[in-house]
Every structure is written in structure tokens, then in C-alpha cells.
Amino acid sequence: MKQIKDLASLLISFLLSVPVFAQSYSTQPVPFIQVKITDQFWSTRLKAHANATLETCIAQTQDSTERINNFIKAAGLMDGGHEGIYFDDSDVYKAMEGIAYSLINNPNPEHEALLDRWISYIAKAQQPDGYLNTFYTLNHPEDRWTDMEKHEMYCGGHMIEAAVAHHKATGKTTFLNVATKFADHLINTFGPGKKHWVAGHEEIELALVKLYHETGDKKYLNLSYWLLEERGHGHGKGAIWDKSHWGAAYCQDDVPVAEISDIKGHAVRAMYLFSGMADVAAEKDLPEYVAALERVWEDVVERNMYITGGIGSSGSNEGFSNDYDLPNKEAYCETCASIGMVLWNNRMNLFSQDAKYIDVMERSMYNGVLSGVSLEGDLFFYVNPLESEGHHHRQEWFGCACCPSNVSRFLPSVGSYIYATSDEKGVFVNLYVGSTAEMKVGTTKLELVQHTNYPWDGNIEMEVQPEKEASFSLNLRIPGWCKVFSLSLNGKKQKVTVQDNGYVTLDRSWKKGDKLSLIFDMPVEVVAADPRVEANVGKRAIQRGPLVYCVEESDQANLNWDKIELSKTSTLKTAKASGKLAGMLEIEGKTGDTNFTLIPYFAWDNREEGRMKVWIDYKE
User: Which end of the chain is more exposed for a tag (fewer CB within 10 A), N or C?
Assistant: First the structure.
């Protein structure tokens, strides 16, 4: 145990002493290894992750399904063919990434030994030429790299991400060696003068950039760029392209990536593509990529995003349909897509230092992502509708289990989204999460300490602790939902103006012990949808701060569900929740003689079964 803790301390010291290799975003995130989360809200979520989510993923991976056994078979240690879905390998890798991340802040020798064992199976399953995919190795060895829809690169991308996480967490190279051997196999197989390829499910693109950062070998970055440039030129072949109702647009292969303007197709694939485009654009200075990402971002956020930050309205393609087509009961809003929105919007902010991207990231994180896992951390949503007749419930697992394993790797990395730094523009505070963070500003080591009960209230206290007195800018995000705020420095109220990019900036010489007090007014708000969203005509939603609220039938005792409505005269006030929701704030509503209760959307379906809705009938 002591060895793991010493390694974590060593890693933090190393990260503070040298710049991150070759990352060219104008702003750099402070990695979660340098951030200790202390607040009630996220600490509770992380405890549930460590105690239940990881254990559920481990049990399902090695005990209840054939996922690990597929690797054992491919390694020649067990007889039999591949069982399960052809992309099940990816769930193993995502679970491994989550375990590796968790090791950094929650050392666990048993989990580290588990990873060592799984890695040994994976390494033995890898083919001599570097190829690695148990579906093809066991059942169709002669057909590998023949169908671009079959997720070979998608699985490989998640393997690379897990290997990088394992290397960062433990310093061991066993898994990283597997990843580089696989990536070298890709380089030997694809590229100019070799085989064309369009990954039917994007993911490999961002993973290869991570491998480049970890190894310093630019060939992996170049392969990522080549794969992006393959899209939109008629190279796609396989099951996706053969289906007339899907076609190339389903996997974002209908136009070259630099020409993308409208959101189309499968939501998760699009998010991974845009994240990979952003990473490559940051390294190679590709303004045409950035312009395309800005165009499609506007189309997603302005015309195709739910109030929860969820995306993907259609179950038929797990993605997008027409602009403003945002049904509530039928909303797909896959948990993985909301995670993708966090990944993409974070990258867009790193390019621009524009807080509008963090506004969307925060909305998706607190509503779209967190709704995907139960409060106890052991049950999951794949689909996250905004209205239910009482028959939609979290499950222990899914045949297609991308969402539980994705949640397992996302939650322990939440600390990476709170702070960022820039040599030119100083420190950015993007999220308000009780935490202690260590970072460097120029040549100065800095510790920032946040104390807050956000998102339940808008009071934030911050301690600025530079190693020595130093001049730099501190940029504080003012959330888009906030209309009124105040800021004090060492007890003195500051006259500050929100800049066009959504931040207020304090540029001064900072001394150890400087204290900030930032207070956001956080009223209950009644929100109307764009009138072009037919599903929400005559309805309103309730939000407070970053949280969207909903009504759940279990709270409305002896009340006619269909009679719940809002009006201009409705009163709405916060109250402390109890039972399973203890520690949260609910909203008590009253319209005429009717009393009703609203709870945070992310917390629905954690108690008794019953109906739920976000959008409520509104009476003029």
C-alpha cells in the first residue's frame, strides 16, 4: 500500500516539474492526479464508484459474462470460440481504464494485481504481428480488416487508452507494450500506399494522440491524422455503408471532416470523432478542423441538444434525426453520448478559453452523465429519456455494455475538468468543486483550495497558495445560468466585469493565504424550450444552477399525475430532501391548491417505481 502511495506522490512531483509532452492546446487541463476532491457532492459519487461501480464491472467482466474468457481462449489457455458481441473487448478495456484511474487516488493492491492478470491474458492473446481482437482471432481469423463496421479499431482505441492509463497509474510498461505493438501493426497495414480504412466507430483517432503523448513518437499522431483524412472520400465499406437507411453519414463518412457543418448519424461516434479532430488540430495547427468543429458545435447545441445536455433523439440510429426533433419519452440520450459531450466540449474550451463550452460540459456532466448510474453506483441507464410511464429502470448490466464501463472510466477522471492553466493567460477555474489542486503557473508552484457545497448552493471560498509571491491571472468562470454574482478578495468586494468569454479575471501579484469569496445567486428558474421543439409546446422545465429537475410519481402522494402543472403564479422553493436523497435539495412547488415536489433529474429512479417527467404542462 505504501509503495502505491509513494508512487502517486512521485507522479505528482514529476508532473509539476516538467511540461506535459507535446500538447499544443493553448490551455492545459490540470490532470486529476493533481486534484484531490473533497466536497460532499462528488466525493459521494466517487465513493459509490470505488465501492460499487468498479466491483460491478469487474464481476460482470470476469464472472457473469465471457468477456475475459474470450482473451483467455485467444491466448490458448482455454478451449472454445468467441462468445458475446463482436465489440465486447472494448468493455474490458474501459473497465481496466477505470480501475487504473481509481488506483491513483484509491490505492488497491488487489485491483492492481487483477490488472496484472488481465494484462497477461491480453498480451498472450495478441498475435505475433500485433493484431488484437478476440472476435476475429477466435472465430474469423481469415476475415480481419475486411469490414470497417466491425469495431476492430474501436476496440483497439479503448485498449490504447487503458494502456496509457495503466502506465500513468503504475509506471509499468506491460500494457503499454501491447498498445504500441498494436499501433505499429496499424502503421504497417494502413496509410499512404497501403490499405485504405475508415473506422466505422470512431475512437482510435483520439487514442492514438494519447499514445503519441505517452511515448513521444510522432508516427502515432500522423496515423491519427491520416485516418481522419480518409473520411468522406468513398473509402468506407461494410455493413454500415450497405444499409440504405444508414449509409456513410451514420458514421460521419459522408463528407471530408474539414467540411462538416451539420450533425448527422450516431451520436457517440460523432463525439469521439470531434474529440479526435480537436486533438489532432491542436498538434498540427489545422484551422480548417477548428472551423468545422465550431460549425457543428452550434448545430448540436442550438438545435439538437436536450436541456439535460443529452444528445441523440432517435433510437433507430442511436443518434440524430431532424433539427428540433427532441421527443421526451422516446429520447435516446445514451449515457456514452453525454460522456462524449464532456470530452468534446472540454477540448473546445482548451482551444478557445470560452466558457460557453464549459457551460455545456457542466450541463452534460451533472445531468446527462450522472443520470446514467444509480446513487449506489451499481445500476445503470443506457438510455436516458426525459419522460417515463414508469417502465424504464436502471439495470445491473446490458448485452451491449458500453455505458456501464464508460461510466466506470469517466467518474474517477472528473478532477481533470476543474482547472486549467496557460503560460500566457494564467489559471482557469472551470468547475466549482470542493478540492485541493497542485499545478504550475510559469515557474511557480501553486496550490488552489476550493470549499463549496455546489451545486446545492452558489457559495465558493477559494484559497490561493503560491509557493512564493507571483504575478499571474486567475480566471473564474461565471456560469451562463448565473445572472447575479459577487466577488471578494481578502474580504474586499471587487468590481469586476464578465468578459466576452464568460470569465472574470483577477490579474495581480498573489501571496500565500490570499482568499477569494465568489457567490452565485442560484434561484429556481422556469425554462421554456425553443418554440420549434414541438414536444415541449405548452410546457416548461425547472432548473436551478447547473441542475435540471423533474417530477417523480413517488413524491406526489394522492395527486392526480395529469393535474401537475405550472403557471405564472406558481411558487417554487427549495427544501432539504430525505431518505435516499438526503443531502440534496428538492423543490417544493405549488400551483393554486396543488402541491408537488421536484427532484434533481440525475437522481430519478432510485426509489419506488413510477412515472417521471422533466417538461411539465404550463397554464398561461
Answer: C
Task: With a cut of 70, say whether residue 366 has pLDDT above it.
Answer: yes
Q: Which helix (H) or strand (E) holds 616?
A: strand 616-619
Please determine, for residue 13, whether its predicted confidence score (pLDDT) is greater than 70. no
Q: What is the per-residue pLDDT across 65-105, written as a single tens digit (0 to 9) for each?
A: 999 999 999 999 999 999 999 999 999 999 999 999 999 88
Beta strands in 406-495 (DSSP E): 419-422, 426-429, 435-441, 444-452, 459-466, 470-477, 485-489, 492-493
Cα distance between residue 92 and residue 100, in whole Å: 12
Q: Is the pLDDT of residue 14 over 90?
A: no
Q: Can you give the pLDDT at residue 17? A: 37
**pLDDT over 90 for what percent of the chain?**
91
- Cα separation of 329 and 110, whole Å? 42
Q: Treating both helix axes as pointing N-terminal to C-terminal, what angle do 89-105 and 152-170 enclose, rounded to 10 degrees?
A: 20
Locus of grid cell 496509457:
164
Q: What is the pLDDT of residue 64?
A: 87
Report DSSP letters for 422-437, one per residue: ETTTEEEE-S---EEE
Residue 16 has pLDDT above 50, yes or no: no
> What is the domain partition of the chain in residue ranges?
31-417, 420-520, 524-619
CATH 2.60.40 fits 420-520, yes or no: yes
Q: What number is the average pLDDT over the span 21-28?
A: 71
Cβ-Cβ contacts under 8 Å for 7 (sequence gap 6 or more): 170, 171
Q: Phi first, then psi: what are they for 582, rounded to 5°? A: -55, 140
Catalytic residue selected from 57, 402, 403, 482: 402
Residue 203 falls in the annotated catalytic set: no
3-class secondary-structure state, position 308:
coil
> Torsion over CA of 290, 296, 298 and 303, rounded to 10 degrees?
-170
pLDDT tens-place string over residues 419-470: 999 999 999 999 999 999 999 998 999 999 999 999 999 999 999 999 999 9
The DSSP result for 8-31, as a single string, is HHHHHHHHHHSPPTT---SSEE--
Is 298 catalytic? The answer is no
The catalytic position among 318, 334, 362, 553 is 318
Amino acid at 340: G
Nearest to 122 by CA among 130, 398, 205: 130
Yes or no: say if 342 and 355 are a contact pair by the CB < 8 Å rule. Answer: no
Could you tell me the end-to-end alpha-carbon distance of the chain, in angstroms, rounded to an integer? 62
CATH class for the region spanning 31-417: mainly alpha
How many other CB atoms sit within 10 Å of the CB of residue 191? 17
Task: Report how far residue 88's alpha carbon sits from residue 81's, in angstroms, rounded to the nearest whole number.
Answer: 14
CB 484 within 8 A of CB 522: no
